[in-house]
Amino acid sequence: MRLRINLERMACLWAFMSCVHSAGGQQSPATAVGAVGAGVKPWLKQAISELSRLPAGDTVKVASRRVALGYIDPLRAIQMLALHGYTIGKAEAVIDPASLPVVIALPGTTFHETVPKVEDKFPQTETDPLNELVVFHNKNEPGQLSGLLAILADEIDRPARQIIIEAMILEVSSTAINELGVKWTRAASVPPNGNFINSQLDGLTIGSLKYPGVGEALSLVTRAGQGGVFRNLNAQIKALVREGEAEVLSRPSVLALNNRMAYINVSEEIPVANTSYSPSGNYASTSFTDKKAGITLALRPRIDSVGDEVSMQVNAEVSARVPDADVIVRNASGVILASSPTISKRDIRTYVRVANNTPFIIGGLIAKDKQSSIDKMPLLGSVPLLGRLFQSKRDNVVKREVIIVLTPFVLPEGHVIGKNMPMDEDAFDSAGHQLFRDAYRIRSEDTFDLNYLYENRELQRMKAEIARAVSKDMELAKQYPYSNFYGAAVPGENILCYRQIYEVLKRRGSQKDLDADKIIFFEKDSKIGSGYRVRFLEEYIKARAPDILSDKGGMKAVALTFNMQRTSGNAASIFSEPVPEVSLLDCANKEEWTSELWEMNQSTEDGQERFTVLLHNKKDVTRLKYALLMKKVVELNTERIALSLKNFTRGRLLLMPRIKEKDIELIDGDVARAFFYSEMYYQAQQVKMREDIDALRSLNNSKKNTNRVESFFQRR
Q: Could you tell me the CA-to-CA distances from 668 to 522, 523, 612, 613 in Å, in that order?
């Protein structure tokens, strides 16, 4: 069979070449097609038509393209391109067409680096984009530009990996506090005619214990008994020891780029007095300067090629105000003029290598502080000289150790839930603001598990072929069906996104604010034969099939079918698409409703898309409300974000519509599409996948035939 087809195509090609030869070989391929007539197969006609549009191979049409760089500096980019063999031009030199493609780093501007102070003159502002290259290429050879852009994206303009560094700073007090307590109580079992204590002091309690104790070094209880040491008294003795109390001073974390500096500062400004004196030794003035006290961390991580280890340069400093150690300035009369705190400072600098997701500890930052406390009786303790008789002073030496725990978390290059992703909480949503739109943060339960798509070998093979084709001609990425396979795109992904949006709205109960009696549709005006009039859906249903508004439904269903004509070239279709074909169908149960819904949402015989809203019971009316909201979500977020699996991911914010009491909602073709996809998303996505694969295979076969004819002409 294959041999017969090839012989048939060779015969057609021979017939075509005979016509060209009989005409003296001067006819163009497109002109020669008419001479061959019906003997030429459709594939050959298409191939010859494409050949007629091909430019001559020796023509050069110089074109330029500005390329924005996302991560790398333009000068480094052109250095890398030079290593790949590309010609690097100069901004002041004329382009040589024989050297195409030529790459030039676009000169920058000096008016963008800093924002001046308020009192300074504001400099000239340059609005032209920065960090760009200009590529001059031959427009008749798309592979020149496409190949250069592919190298830029895949090997040169690459983002640095990211890492989260989580720090925990603890302060441990190693001073132990020992407390001893004894508690005496009267035994309940003592007879009333016992000794003097038993008979005279009822409910005796002497002493007390401090509770609770963190650690118990000794706990002893003796019970009263006949002949016992304490006879009719209970004795409870407990020694309390509290030591090693730790306090978490701070738990900062920072997201940093690989091999870039990260700085964490958790501190406060403490005023420090600067006192000056006159030449005679008398006090002159005091000024204050601020001094920082707190925690500062300067980090520079470096990730290995695999991402398993992190080399990290660490500069850590912990400073704190020393208690009871202020420097006091007094005048000759002893009056305090100023005071300055004493600040302790502990720092460490090191360079470490640690495994990913593994904490390491920096310890040994020890400080000793002398603390004094005075206890005194009210009034008497404040009397000069004699007050010391009514005071007690206690000096304690407190030893404090600061421990720093650092943990690096290397983030995966793909979009994977990791340490950088916060929990799925409502606190990240934004709702109820008067001047800002509501926003919903997508949770993990809002996204589908699509491994059956991403791990399909045949689909991955096709995507790899598309990537190779686009690297030779980047315009293919914008053309159907290549656009549905290129990059992260998946055929039918918009259908899956419609369903995901539906699940979000359903979980939030968003339809409760939308009244069914405020939903309208357009109906053809039969009186004047053109135009349309507005109909309220609920009134229409009550008049023709009121059982639809019940939970179970009746024997009928209302269908609103929209023919999607916005891509047609007929001007009259502009006014006809929003007007549905309304019909009343026999529909007794869920099975019949499902079958009718599928059939009425298939394209017509001439390939025109159509979508239908089919209402059989109250649940279908609720689904229609969600479809109206789905359309609004897509409009608010744009199709590129809302209907793309690459963008509809956990953690992103999704703008949500807000329904007002007086809003009137219109059913149109977009609403009908959302209604259908919300119910039969899986089946519709399968059909779309098959259509795109068939279109791609058909196009590839056509391209192969075109290449065969083109190579034949080159040999001639």
A: 9, 11, 10, 9
300 pLDDT higher than 90: yes
- Is residue 492 within 8 Å of 452, Cβ to Cβ? no
Check if the beta carbon of residue 178 is closer than 8 Å to that of residue 240.
yes
Give 393: exposed, middle or buried? Use CB within 10 Å, 0-12, 13-18, 19+: exposed
Check if the beta carbon of residue 51 is closer than 8 Å to that of residue 706: yes
pLDDT at position 35 over 60: no
Give per-residue pLDDT as tens, 631-648.
999 999 998 889 999 899
Q: Which two tokens stand for residue 107?
A: 């000169």
Place of tokens 């990913």: 356
- Higher pLDDT pick, 62 / 248: 62
- What is the mean predicted confidence (pLDDT) over 571-580? 72
Pairwise CA distance, residues 609 & 577, whole Å: 11
Coil vs helix vs strand at 483 = helix
Which pLDDT value is given to residue 214? 38
Cis peptide upstream of residue 212 (ω within 30 degrees of 0): yes
User: Exposure pattern of 467-476 as b/e (b: 16+ CB <10 Å)?
Assistant: bebbbebbeb
Question: Mapping DSSP to helix (H, G, I), strand (E, B) and coil, where does residue 83 land?
Answer: helix
Rounded to an integer, what is the distance from CA 547 to the centroid of its chain? 46
Q: What is the pLDDT of residue 50?
A: 55
C-alpha to C-alpha distance for 331 and 280, rounded to whole angstroms: 13
Pairing between strand 215-222 and 233-242?
A: antiparallel
What is the C-alpha to C-alpha distance for residues 350 and 311, in angstroms, rounded to an integer? 11
Predicted confidence at residue 209, as pLDDT, reads 46
Q: What is the pLDDT of residues 80-128, one digit of tens each?
A: 999 999 999 988 888 888 899 999 998 877 776 667 777 777 777 777 7
Distances (CA, A) of 166 to 163, 294, 299, 309, 646: 10, 17, 11, 16, 28
Contact 386, 433 (CB under 8 A): no
Residue bearing the bigger pLDDT, 375 or 657: 657
Contact 656, 440 (CB under 8 A): yes
User: Which residues lie closer than 8 Å to 199 by C-beta, 6 or more apart?
Assistant: 192, 193
Interior/surface letters 16-44, b for 16+ CB within 10 angstroms, e for the rest: bbebbeeeeeebebeebbebbeeebbebb
| pLDDT score, position 298 | 92
Contact 126/133 with Cβ under 8 angstroms? Answer: no
